[in-house]
Amino acid sequence: MKTLVIVPTYQEAAGIVRALDAVLTDAPEVDVLVVDDRSPDGTGALVATHPAYGGRLELLSRPGRNGLGAAYRAGFGWALEHGYDAVVEMDADLSHPPAVIPALVAALASADLAIGSRYVAGGRTAGWPLRRRMVSRAGNAYVRAVLGMPVRDATAGFRAFRATTLRTIGALRSESDGYAFQIETTWRAARLGLTIAELPITFTERSVGESKMSSAIVAEALLRVARWRLRELTGSPRRSGDRASATT
């Protein structure tokens, strides 16, 4: 499958070159698109001067910081316009193991969405303090309980989609901007009866740069999950941003 790895960035100059080198080496069949929100630290310039730039590596520069979901929607649109069959989401800090990319893509032979999961057998986190592990597990338990999805790691940011899946779930019209974006795309796929596979990974805490997680991002996820379920229970009409459709 013609595959594109999308890496959203903001202030990732300290580690972006190492991350790109790892992806391009460990997943030799994929191309990479960095979606940079005009990072003041020069992340975009480092991508544009990388030896692979213009070949297997491309840069999509956005006018400013506008959230993870918006960055991925921009990347998805670029991937669909350029004829990719599969799209992989991946963080820029090597928290996600690039060597697993081929396995995620291979899983799409029988799945519509493949998730690199911390919370299935064989998956784990490395370098996280107890509090963060508890918050992450509690968040996923909350998602499963409220939305009734069997997925163990709905908040995971390391995942692969078929291009047809992105169209089917209406990913370009999703509404979330923070990490709720990951939950939303999982929820859309589950509600439409698509096949979701979870592959175990080791998620490693970043060694350079700063996490973009914040209390506001967590609050957005909690509120959106409750709102989505309320709409389902009350039969409230979905807003245009919620509507799953084969139209991109």
In short:
The protein is an alpha/beta fold and 248 residues long.
Structure explained in plain terms:
This protein is α/β, with parallel strands linked by helices and 248 residues long. The protein is 38% helix and 17% strand. The chain has eight helices and nine strands. β1, α1 and β2 form a beta-alpha-beta unit. α5 packs parallel to α8 (215-234). The protein starts with a strand and ends in a 14-residue tail after the last helix.
What spatial order of strands do you see in the largest sheet? 3-2-1-4-7-5-8
Q: In total, how many beta strands?
A: 9
Report the order of strands and helices. EHEHEHEHEEHEHHEEH
SS class: alpha/beta
Shape by Cα distribution: globular
Mean pLDDT: 90
- Give me the number of helical elements: 8
Q: How many structural domains are formed by the residues?
A: 1
Q: How much helicity do the residues have? A: 25-40%
Identify low-pLDDT runs: 239-248
| CATH classification class | Alpha Beta
Task: Name the features.
globular, seven-stranded mixed β-sheet, single chain, Spore Coat Polysaccharide Biosynthesis Protein SpsA, Chain A, alpha/beta, 248 residues
Topology diagram in text:
Elements: E1 3-9, H1 16-26, E2 31-36, H2 43-48, E3 57-61, H3 68-81, E4 86-89, H4 101-107, E5 113-117, E6 124-126, H5 130-147, E7 159-162, H6 163-168, H7 180-191, E8 196-200, E9 202-204, H8 215-234
Parallel strand pairs: 1-2, 1-4, 2-3, 5-8, 6-9
Antiparallel strand pairs: 4-7, 5-7
